[in-house]
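pasting for the record
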Amino acid sequence: MFGFFNFLIWPILIIGVIFFFVRFLRRRRKAEVIKEKDWYLQFSLSKEDTVSQFFFLFSVFFLGVTILAFNKDLGDPLSLRTILLLVSVIGLGIGYYFKVIYTLAVSLIGLVGWWGAQAAEWAQGKDIKGAALFVGLLFISILFYLLSRVHEKKVKFKRVSIVYLILGLIPVTATLFLFSTKSGLRTLGEITKGASFFASWEITFSLFVFLVSIVGILVYALSKNLIFKPEALVIGFLVVLFSIIAFLPEQTMFLQQRMQQWRYEYYRDINLSGSGILWAIIFNILVLIEAFGLVLLSYFKKEGWLNKIGLLFVGALFIVKFFEWQNHWGSNPLLISMAVVMFLTCGLTVYLLVKSLRKKFNLKIEDKIYSVLGLVPLTFFLFLLSSESGLKNFNFNVQSLPFFSYLLILTTIYLLLNLILWFYFFRTKINLFREITFLIAFLFLLTLIILVFPHKNLFTESNELSGLGIFWAVVFNLMLFSEIVGIIFLGYFNNKNFFINLGIVFMSILIFVKYFDWFFAFLDKSIFFIGAGILLFVVGWFMEKGRRYMLSAIKKEEISQNQ
């Protein structure tokens, strides 16, 4: 017993010294700190604050070690979970009283860990589905987010609100990211196996308390105008969705096919089931809404750091979805390049959305950026498809997707995203909606062609085009020609020389490439040059007519200004 007290005296002395020096280290005046821009985002307000924060954190750790030693010396009357709860509550009180975010964050994580461990103990031996425990942790995350919105209006709780915000956003966002993937859908199916959480009254009561707390804080925040109504609507939808998941019976996300290899049998996922289709659509839409909602929320709150977090989530989302696309198609260069074009267009649209939310929006610069990064990859992708090598990639080891497959759902949602953003640009009268519509039409058409329609056996055994191959060769060459002519006319209709010059460059490349392309090898060179000459004459005639129209419009404008 004496050895225990000998061990105990040192942590007590250290904690006493820490609290003694804290009063001398935390003397920076509050007025000076608040004058700094985004002061509440800093991990520490000064060197003294850093030392103070770590002193408080170490004091909580020493307290936990002391209680563990005392508990062991008395024969372990308290479980580790109880000690974790006790230390976390004390740390939470210290964090609130002294406004120390390190201790507060660790204490909140400790409380979440305690509930997770305690819920697992309650569920032990009752075969309760993992979805109930998972939903409980998500409810706690939503509670943290709501508490961050309640705290942020008071200056003294600004830093506390940031801690709650981070601990609330990351778990919910990670969950939506996870469940929007194929592996996440499998996980969702696994955690719905088991008995209902009603088999444990402790878990049932906990979930009920979490739900009532969320509803109460949400109503309070709305009554005090602490939260935006669309934001509250999304939170309410997430709460309802997570509640449904807690009640879900066992879900089969994929249709399976029995396979046999040597003496072993196994099952392979071949396609989404009906419930898998539903959940894939829901979570892929939700993760988009959540990521873009942060970007829009940063605009309304005028918080630059929140904008960066939202854009970080959007970028991470596009990267995750691109790798999902790549993992499905393997190493086929044609489909990987198409994924690059599609997600690049989505990223450019998001970029335009963010720029349009600002007061100073330089349309000229964004026009050129969007044209080069959007139209050029799309055009060269069509060049590839209309060539011999492109058709071979289009034919080699590629199977058309059945309707309602995961990849088709993913593609459709991201293309609909562009259409929604196009509608926003149209309503706000931003002059880029024509270009966006132009890109969307081609991307949507290409995606449906490549993913859904059959495109096997394009070549015969003698490596010549089959009937289906000739059909696709004609389709892609017509699409390429229409796209280039469309770029030129787009420039005329919008009075933008950049588009006209870009279209002329593409047209010159088209004639040069098709001269050497195998598709026209059966033609006599004289016939090819006659056709190319007629084509250039027709295009040149339209261009000259448009040039004269533009000059006359400019002269009329100059005359009206002089008058």
